[in-house]
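User: I'm writing a short report section on ligand binding and want a predicted complex to refer to. Could you take this sequence and NAP and write out the structure as tokens? A short remark afterwards would be nice.
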Amino acid sequence: MKLNPKKMKLAFIGIGNVGFALANNLQQKGHTIVVASNDDHSETVQKALHQNVHFSTKKIQDAIDEAEVVFLATPFQANESVLQSLSFHGKTLIDCTNPVGPGISHGLNSVISGSEKVQEWAPDAKVVKAFTIYGFENFANSHYPNYSQQPAMLLAGNDTSAKAQTASLIADLGFEPVDVGGLDQALHLEHMTLLWVKRVRRDGHSPHFVWGYMQRD
Ligand SMILES: NC(=O)c1ccc[n+]([C@@H]2O[C@H](COP(=O)([O-])OP(=O)(O)OC[C@H]3O[C@@H](n4cnc5c(N)ncnc54)[C@H](OP(=O)(O)O)[C@@H]3O)[C@@H](O)[C@H]2O)c1
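Assistant: Sure. The structure tokens for the complex follow:
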């Protein structure tokens, strides 16, 4: 996959744990961050603007209109209402959200992926699933000093150019982008998320671990 090293204007819908960790790290790598929010009183938006003075904020549709790539980092259950009135004009929408159900189960009963639902709710976006298989701690800091290999970041989507943009951002953050195929593969990434979440949030392992991808020719 050819990577595009260009620095981009990125809009973030949702700037909590995941959104801020990614936006802050990407801003430090030279990208321009616009926080997309219609709520002037949002605590996470105010906190993000305070913690990184290089962020700006705009109404969600205005932020999308001027961004090259949009990140979705909201609670999954908010997605349908957030997305239904927005126009993406064919832009890349990186879906960082996970449908999580009771007992850390798949929130859509493993029948369909959350990302395929996001694509249904945002039909004029090019949806790519990425930045979901680890906790936000690893998006804030993707440096693992005892290893020469970069950690893997799996991505899935139906559009080649949208995946190339996403892979470029993944690489900029120090992960190895691994394209695992079309958006139908997102369901399996969501199960990988549940594996990580159960191991860390339920079973008490350190959140500062990721997976590596090794291939023999
Ligand atoms: N936490 C993790 O380690 C992790 C890792 C990978 C993926 N994920 C997934 O990433 C997503 C975000 O997780 P998080 O931990 O970052 O959550 P979070 O800290 O609760 O942040 C959620 C963000 O979404 C915003 N938001 C909530 N409802 C909204 C709505 N109706 N319209 C617009 N914005 C809305 C919140 O704004 P307000 O503050 O104004 O409510 C906040 O900025 C979830 O889908 C989660 O499953 C989480």
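A remark for your report: Residues 14-19, 39, 42-44, 73-76, 78, 81-82, 96-98, 100, 132, 135-136 surround NAP (CB under 6 Å). The beta strands are 9-13, 32-36, 56-58, 69-72, 92-95, 100-101, 105-106, 126-129, 152-157, 176-179.
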